[in-house]
Amino acid sequence: MSNVHLVDHPLVQHKLTLMRRKDASTNSFRRLLNEISMLMAYEVTRDMAMQEIEIETPLETMQAKVIDGKKLVFVSILRAGTGILDGMLSVVPGARVGHIGLYRDPKTLTAVEYYFKMPSEMSERDIVVVDPMLATGNSAVAAVDRLKELRPKSIKFVCLLTCPEGVKTMQEAHPDVPIYTAAIDRELNDHGYILPGLGDAGDRIFGTK
């Protein structure tokens, strides 16, 4: 798991524990995910491209560095990825946004695409794919497969939770894509859910079943 970055900051782990509790309300779950996403954005964007601009301080003119936000694209895997996307955009509001609609076939557990919309000039951009759960890994692999067709400069994958099976699937298909996660849980169950996990992230974000 050399390409897996575990974000084990105390604040991230504390908030994740509160999210895992089955009695966490939709409101608190959504708020905590937003807060964790902002904290994880700090690690994910550590090597972001920067540019120098000229500014005026109250005392003089100087050259100062700013994030080249227009080169960064957050790609949300619908629908649950929206929960991480909002927090990331709070930290990097200048980033562009793409969406991939995927659903998991309940019988085969394979990913089926139903929506794909990206900004222009993707070959000049760094991509951060966001989805709360890297479980079977099939959706993540399908998303990265599709994005690599656009030949971006780089791709990273950000999730809240993963497991050894999901990491293995992702790394076998895309060993060049680093994975950022707040936890690597024990295993998958027979239905493709992470254990101990936190349930269905999409349902818990949106209050659906």
TrEMBL record:
<comment type="similarity">
    <text>Belongs to the UPRTase family.</text>
</comment>
<feature type="binding site">
    <location>
        <position position="194"/>
    </location>
    <ligand>
        <name>uracil</name>
    </ligand>
</feature>
<dbReference type="GO" id="GO:0004845">
    <property type="term" value="F:uracil phosphoribosyltransferase activity"/>
</dbReference>
<keyword id="KW-0547">Nucleotide-binding</keyword>
<keyword id="KW-0342">GTP-binding</keyword>
<comment type="function">
    <text>Catalyzes the conversion of uracil and 5-phospho-alpha-D-ribose 1-diphosphate (PRPP) to UMP and diphosphate.</text>
</comment>
<feature type="binding site">
    <location>
        <begin position="131"/>
        <end position="139"/>
    </location>
    <ligand>
        <name>5-phospho-alpha-D-ribose 1-diphosphate</name>
    </ligand>
</feature>
<dbReference type="InterPro" id="IPR000836">
    <property type="entry name" value="PRTase_dom"/>
</dbReference>
<dbReference type="InterPro" id="IPR005765">
    <property type="entry name" value="UPRT"/>
</dbReference>
<dbReference type="InterPro" id="IPR034332">
    <property type="entry name" value="Upp_B"/>
</dbReference>
<keyword id="KW-0808">Transferase</keyword>
<protein>
    <recommendedName>
        <fullName>Uracil phosphoribosyltransferase</fullName>
        <ecNumber>2.4.2.9</ecNumber>
    </recommendedName>
</protein>
<keyword id="KW-0460">Magnesium</keyword>
<keyword id="KW-0328">Glycosyltransferase</keyword>
<feature type="domain" description="Phosphoribosyltransferase">
    <location>
        <begin position="7"/>
        <end position="208"/>
    </location>
</feature>
<dbReference type="Pfam" id="PF14681">
    <property type="entry name" value="UPRTase"/>
</dbReference>
<feature type="binding site">
    <location>
        <position position="200"/>
    </location>
    <ligand>
        <name>5-phospho-alpha-D-ribose 1-diphosphate</name>
    </ligand>
</feature>
<feature type="binding site">
    <location>
        <position position="79"/>
    </location>
    <ligand>
        <name>5-phospho-alpha-D-ribose 1-diphosphate</name>
    </ligand>
</feature>
<keyword id="KW-0021">Allosteric enzyme</keyword>
<dbReference type="InterPro" id="IPR029057">
    <property type="entry name" value="PRTase-like"/>
</dbReference>
<feature type="binding site">
    <location>
        <begin position="199"/>
        <end position="201"/>
    </location>
    <ligand>
        <name>uracil</name>
    </ligand>
</feature>
<feature type="binding site">
    <location>
        <position position="104"/>
    </location>
    <ligand>
        <name>5-phospho-alpha-D-ribose 1-diphosphate</name>
    </ligand>
</feature>
<comment type="pathway">
    <text>Pyrimidine metabolism; UMP biosynthesis via salvage pathway; UMP from uracil: step 1/1.</text>
</comment>
<dbReference type="InterPro" id="IPR050054">
    <property type="entry name" value="UPRTase/APRTase"/>
</dbReference>
